[in-house]
Amino acid sequence: MTDQDESHDARAGVAFTDIYVDDDIVDRVSDTLRSTRYVKGERVERFEAAFADRCGTDHAVGVNSGTAALLLSMQSAGIGPGDEVFVPGHTFFASVSPVLHLGATPVFVDVDPRTCTMDPDDLAAKAERAENPTAVVPVHLYGQLADLDAILDVADDHDLTVVEDACQAHFATRDGHTAGASGDAGAFSFYPSKNMTVGGDGGMLVTDDADLATRARRLRDHGRDEEGVHREVGLNYRMSEVSAAVGREQLDRVQEWNDARAAAAARYDGLLAAVDGVETPTVADGAQHVYHLYVVQVPAADRDPLRDYLAARDIETGVHYETPAHQHPAVAERVGDVSLPRTEALCDRIVSLPMHPRIAPEDVETVCAAVASYFEGKQGGVAESEPDDPADSGTTESDPEEPTDTSPARTDGGREESQ
Asked: Rounded to whole angstroms, how far apart are CA atoms 239 and 119?
């Protein structure tokens, strides 16, 4: 959506997210394209410096995805075959795939069902039993930091490398920690739906470790050092100059957008507080949530019917994530049977409601009214997916010659989310 499109007609439904582009960003991209310097230039360096300053770290390394930032964080820290790496069971697949790619073994940790982040007590118990505990990847999920104080204590006790997955938590804070800045390295994603983007895929690695940063810069460019010598085998994970130009412009605005997300979340919280059957997000004491996603919990039996009910009213939703990380076939064949009861129960209960910085108050009210209507109708035994009148959903009669989507607003967040 561009800044010329200011319409928020409730009859048109409520979109799950909103990609925003204005003239300043277009101008930065145009200037970069006219420069004809598209890779390995000053724009990436300036973006890296500004991002490191914003995080409070000594170094930042721009890459082409959040997944690359995670992979290079781990690889540059020396994680490899035989190492055991602790990861939460509830996360996007990219928190786990770099561990597997490096030949290390993921050890899955259950979550705190209130915050949906890694449970430090389960981490401590599994670290005690591990044969070769090497690293931990606390995931700051949905925009809220994991309990870093407790996790860092466990890491100190077992000499674990800490790689923060901050791909969904740009500049969130908790107990004095800023996302990405307290571990050995932190990884951010700039996928288009994130709190800030680079106009496509992109990522950033941050660290205070000069040696780790130097190795990450080498590995992102085919293992090549500043003299052009290939010191080790690397691949191409470079960030483009165009991406950096967009990112630098967005960096100046991300706090404003985070504040807007928090205001929308507060409105959701207030309107849903009285809805029996809905549990709104829990924000930990001392935490500043940046609401990459607004995720509620409902009874498992109601999750899919609720999504269908909202879809029939042209309200988009997602599920982040329906399949626990340890149950994906690519992981299960490597780790075998793993039981994480809280993670598995959580994955059946979560629903992501529309959230973005430009969501209008009336759109939040529309969503909440529909959620309340579903649960009120269920109590009365009359909840139905389809509205009484097609006009109520903002849809029109479809052309019989055109294919139709039976639930156009029910997006699959697990497939749409990336980093």
From this structure: 34
